[in-house]
Amino acid sequence: MRTALVLGTGLIGTSIGLALTGRGVRVHLADTDPDRPRTAAALGAGTDDPPGAPVDLAVIAVPPAAIAGAVAQMQRRGVARAYTDVGSVKGGPRRELGALGGEPATYLGSHPMAGRERSGPLAATADLFEGKPWVLTPTPETDTEALNLVLELVALCRAVPVVMDADIHDRAVALVSHAPQLLSSLLAARLEDAEESAVRLCGQGMRDVTRLAASEPRMWLDILGANPGPVADVLTEVAADLDETIRSLRALEAADEAKRADGARGVEAVLRRGNAGRERVPGKHGTAPAAYETVAVPISDRPGELARIFADAGRAGVNIEDVRIEHATGQQAGLAQLMVEPASAPALIEALRERGWSVRT
User: Fold this and answer.
1) What total number of domains does the chain contain?
2) For the CA atoms of the chain, what is the radius of gyration?
3) Whole-angstrom distance, CA of residue 304 vs CA of residue 284
C-alpha cells in the first residue's frame, strides 16, 4: 500500500491516518466538515489535498448510517482499488450497499475494536490500534486484492486481524460494547439528581463502571440506531437478571428466615455468575486473565511521581504488568496500585521501601 484516502477525520479516521503516515503511506484526508481534515493534517495524519489518481485503499470512517452511501459513491467514481469501512456495525451497511448497486468484490467491512471516551481529531493517536482486535467481515464475493489491502491496513496499524461473519459480529459487539455503553450511562444517570453527600462518596468502583458514560451521545445514537435489535436482546436478558436480583434483595428484608435464605442464595448466584463471566475476559496480550499481586503505593499529585516508581521498579528488575490509580477525594494525593507477577512482589516491595516509598500490600 502506497496511497490511501481516509473519509471522516474523527478519532478513528485521524488515528488511522497517523498510523499509516508514520509507516510511509501517503494519506489523503476528507470530511464533510472542511476544518477537520485541516486539523488532522496539521497533526501529521496526512494531507487534505485530494488525490490526483485512484488510491490503493479508501477507508470510510463515517457513522454507520452513512457508510453504504459513501462506499457506493466512491465506487462509482473509481476513487480506489479497494474500499473498507471502520464502523461498529457491519451487517446493515453491507446489505444497504447491495441495495444501492454497490460492488461487493472491492468492498470489505471492518471494525477496529479500539476507541476513547473523547472524540474528534485532537483525541487521535497513532498507537490507538496497537495490539487491539480488528474485525474483518469478508464474503465469498470479496476479491483477494481487497482482502490483502485491508489486512495490510491492519498490519500497518499494528492491530490483530479477526475474521467474522457480519451478523455474528453485530451480535457480539451488542454484548461487549454497545450494551455496556448504555448500562454505564444508566448507572451514571442515577448521579444526576443524587444528593451531593452521596456523590462525594464516589470512589474508584463508581469511576470504573461509569467511565463509558463520558462518551459523545450523538456518536452513540448513530451506532445504537444501526444495531438496535441485538442491543435490545442483551438488555432484555439483563433486565430479567435485574428483576430476579431485586426479588432476592427484597427477600433479604423479610422476617421469615427461609425467605431471607432464598434471597441470599439468589444474590450469591448472580455474584458468582459475574465471577465466572469476568474470568473469561481476556487479560494482557489477549491471554487468559492472570492472577497478579497488587502492590499499593501512596503518591502525591506532583510531576514525576509515577515515573520515579516505574524507574525504581525497573532498577529492581520487576515488570509492572498493569497499573491503576485511585484518587483521594478532596486531596492532592492518590494510591498507585501496581500489578505484578506474584513471584516478583516481594522484590518490588523491598526495593520500593529501600527507596523511601510507603508500601501497602
Assistant:
1) 3
2) 24
3) 26
Residue at a domain's end among 289, 308, 326 = 289
**Do 136 and 161 touch, CB atoms closer than 8 A?**
yes
Q: What is the distance between the alpha carbons of residues 89 and 83, in angstroms, rounded to a whole number?
A: 16
Q: Render pLDDT for 55-86 as a digit per residue (tens, 0 to 9).
A: 999 999 999 999 999 999 999 999 999 999 99
Please tell me the total number of residues recorded for the chain in this structure: 361
Q: What's the average model confidence in pLDDT over 91-115? A: 95
The pTM of the whole model exceeds 0.90: no
Residue 340: enclosing H or E segment and its boundaries?
strand 333-340
Q: Count the Cβ atoms, other than its own, within 10 Å of residue 248.
A: 20
Secondary structure (3-state) at 177 = helix
User: Residue written as cell 469501512?
Assistant: 85
Q: Do 279 and 342 share a structural domain?
A: no
Q: Which three cell numbers stand for residue 159?
A: 492491530
**Where does 141-266 show beta strands of DSSP type E?**
160-163
244 lies in which domain range? 165-289
- What mean pLDDT is predicted for residues 268-276? 95
What DSSP string describes 239-253?
A: HHHHHHHHHHHHHTT
Nearest to 250 by CA among 239, 258, 259, 241: 259
**Rounded (5°) CA angle 314-316-317:** 65
- In tens, the pLDDT along 128-163 reads 999 999 999 999 999 999 999 999 999 999 999 999
Do 100 and 189 fall into the same domain?
no
Contact 25, 128 (CB under 8 A): no
Task: Using the predicted structure, report yes or no on whether residue 288 has a pLDDT greater than 70.
Answer: no
pLDDT digits 0-9 by tens, 5-46: 999 999 999 999 999 999 999 999 999 999 999 999 999 999
DSSP for 252-313, written as a single string:
TT-SSHHHHHHHHHHHHHHHHHHHHHHTTS--GGGSPPP-PEEEEEEEES-TTHHHHHHHHH
